[in-house]
């Protein structure tokens, strides 16, 4: 009898909670609908009078909204998970204004694809292209509104193809994405003994170098344009394994022979968003530039002093050989702050005056998503 009464009480309590959840869901749905109406009004204002060049995606505005979501979050949900939920709501609402076309190094299932979804949400229109150079070309030609490109990996360093394109392009950096990279060994075969070759992007092969030496010392390594391309190749050849993501395994119906094969477990790749528009200040920004200075003692220190003397923090400096002159180098420098801030404006002008080559890549919000 007591068991029966307890079961009945539990049923009543669960029904009450589920009814409360249903009521909350209706409120959430209604509020999202109201937000969508506001987004549509924004689009109407931006396009009134027949404007065709309106800018709908504002990186600084989205960063401000997501930071506010994190700051006011007092729920059981983590700050980052709450921000990701809002990222999707914002993506859906932005699509009502204007579908954002994003070029990335494909095919579908690549890490560049994952970074595009993280930055723009699943309602963006991703455009897969074959090379990093093609990402820049797609944006320059107007085939995409933005492009997303890998810049640097925490274990393998810079992506040279991206560096080369940044030197040449007229596009501006408008955002950054840090993506945790966990590699899987994928094959259409269930039997690891059948694998004769392993294909992947050169960066991925480097990130898994020690694991491959320990587990496949005699296997041929095949560098290809992207890990997702390697996955597509593996689907057609049981003797070929690919290093790619779990998402790629699902997309191309491959078996995960081994998971998390990267040598460093905190393996992370930084991506940059490139576009044609200058990004306004968000309140917490970075500025990126490229410089080359005279080949004389103290030249680099003199350039960096322009920032240090104004207490401007440098977050990244990378050197790469110049393509114009043997033994000359260009430096990729990131600093905290927006190019429109007076102190940073002074510093940038001073650096420009001291440099043989100077290129401002742009200012962009520090990513609000972990």
From TrEMBL:
| Marked site positions, Essential for prephenate dehydratase activity | 269
Pathway stated in the Swiss-Prot or TrEMBL entry:
Amino-acid biosynthesis; L-phenylalanine biosynthesis; phenylpyruvate from prephenate: step 1/1; Metabolic intermediate biosynthesis; prephenate biosynthesis; prephenate from chorismate: step 1/1
Q: Which InterPro entries match?
A: ACT-like_dom_sf (IPR045865), ACT_dom (IPR002912), Chor_mutase/pphenate_deHydtase (IPR008242), Chorismate_II_sf (IPR036263), CM_dom_sf (IPR036979), CM_II_prokaryot (IPR002701), G/b/e-P-prot_chorismate_mutase (IPR010957), Preph_deHydtase (IPR001086)
| Chorismate mutase domain segment(s) | 8-101
Query: EC number(s) per UniProt?
Result: 4.2.1.51, 5.4.99.5
> Which GO terms fall under molecular function for this chain's record?
chorismate mutase activity; prephenate dehydratase activity
Q: Which UniProt keywords apply?
A: Amino-acid biosynthesis, Aromatic amino acid biosynthesis, Cytoplasm, Isomerase, Lyase, Multifunctional enzyme, Phenylalanine biosynthesis
Where in the numbering of this chain does the ACT domain appear? 288-365
PANTHER family attached to this UniProt entry = PREPHENATE DEHYDRATASE P PROTEIN, PREPHENATE DEHYDRATASE-RELATED
Note the NCBIfam families from the entry. Answer: CM_P2, PRK11898.1
Any idea what job this protein has?
Catalyzes the Claisen rearrangement of chorismate to prephenate and the decarboxylation/dehydration of prephenate to phenylpyruvate.
This chain belongs to the protein called Bifunctional chorismate mutase/prephenate dehydratase
> From which source organism is this entry?
Thiosulfativibrio zosterae
- Gene transcribed to yield this protein: pheA
């Amino acid at each position: 009898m007591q068991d029966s009464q307890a079961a009945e009480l539990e049923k009543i309590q669960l029904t009450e909670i589920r009814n409360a959840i249903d009521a909350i869901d209706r409120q959430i749905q209604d509020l999202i609908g109201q937000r969508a109406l506001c987004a549509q009004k924004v689009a109407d204002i931006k396009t009134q009078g027949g404007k065709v060049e309106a800018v709908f995606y504002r990186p600084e505005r989205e960063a401000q909204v997501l930071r506010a979501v994190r700051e006011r979050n007092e729920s059981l949900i983590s700050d980052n998970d709450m921000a990701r939920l809002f990222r999707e709501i914002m993506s859906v609402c932005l699509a009502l204004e204007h579908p954002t076309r994003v070029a990335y190094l494909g095919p579908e299932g690549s890490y560049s694809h994952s970074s595009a979804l993280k930055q723009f949400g699943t309602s963006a229109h991703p455009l897969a292209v074959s090379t990093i150079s093609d990402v820049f070309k797609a944006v320059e030609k107007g085939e995409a509104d933005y492009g997303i490109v890998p810049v640097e990996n925490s274990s393998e360093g810079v992506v040279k193809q991206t560096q080369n394109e940044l030197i040449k392009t007229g596009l501006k950096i408008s955002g950054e994405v840090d993506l945790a990279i966990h590699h899987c060994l994928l094959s259409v075969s269930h039997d690891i003994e059948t694998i004769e070759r392993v294909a992947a992007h050169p960066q991925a092969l480097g990130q898994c170098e020690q694991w491959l030496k320990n587990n496949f010392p005699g296997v041929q390594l095949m560098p290809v344009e992207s890990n997702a391309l390697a996955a597509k190749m593996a689907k057609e050849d049981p003797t070929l394994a690919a290093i790619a993501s779990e998402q790629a395994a699902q997309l191309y119906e491959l078996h995960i022979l081994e998971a998390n094969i990267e040598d460093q477990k905190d393996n992370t790749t930084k991506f940059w968003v490139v576009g044609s528009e200058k990004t306004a200040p968000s309140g917490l920004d970075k500025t990126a530039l490229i410089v080359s200075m005279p080949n004389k003692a103290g030249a680099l220190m003199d350039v960096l002093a322009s920032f240090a003397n104004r207490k401007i923090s440098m977050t990244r400096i990378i050197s790469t050989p110049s393509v114009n002159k043997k033994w000359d180098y260009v430096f990729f420098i990131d600093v905290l702050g927006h190019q429109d801030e007076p102190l940073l404006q002074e510093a940038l002008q001073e650096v420009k005056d001291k440099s043989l080559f100077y290129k401002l890549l742009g200012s962009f919000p520090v990513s609000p998503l972990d």
